[in-house]
Amino acid sequence: xxxxxxxxxxxxxxxxxxxxxxxxxxxxxxxxxxxxxxxxxxxxxxxxxxxxxxxxxxxxxxxxxxxxxxxxxxxxxxxxxxxxxxxxxxxxxxxxxxxxxxxxxxxxxxxxxxxxxxxxxxxxxxxxxxxxxxxxxxxxxxxxxxxxxxxxxxxxxxxxxxxxxxxxxxxxxxxxxxxxxxxxxxxxxxxxxxx
Length: 195
Known about the structure:
Elements: H1 3-13, H2 17-39, H3 42-59, H4 69-90, H5 103-107, H6 121-140, H7 143-154, H8 159-166, H9 170-188
């Protein structure tokens, strides 16, 4: 850990408000994006993202520095999202579960930035439809497979970082990623289940 990182961590541990605001500014979008992709509901994702930073603030003293701070924060985010998914699935009988997520919520996931060059409207429409189908297919994966796909293929994290976030050995991460990609391939085939 660099001297600057150690000083920044010391400021966080001293509950320096500007250091915490900087952490929210630098990691907030990644946390929200990860959580949104996992829970597929904007309001839930906003709530969870706020809870993540409250947890970080309260438990910064437990951060040992064995991984990057950003990886530790994403691990907290993944755990909060998984806990909320479990909670929502228990509530599913009252209509509040993720399987009832709106089409709009699923379509809003993973909006990639628009490229700088102009493309024809039909190409843009086709790309949007493909992205939407992929996001719906990711939403159909079980929670463990969805997490590794998002961390590796969307967030583009290394296997080492994914292992730190999930607490899984690298072989298990690779195995789950392979099974998740196979399931996505099946879901994206005509008649495979992803409209």
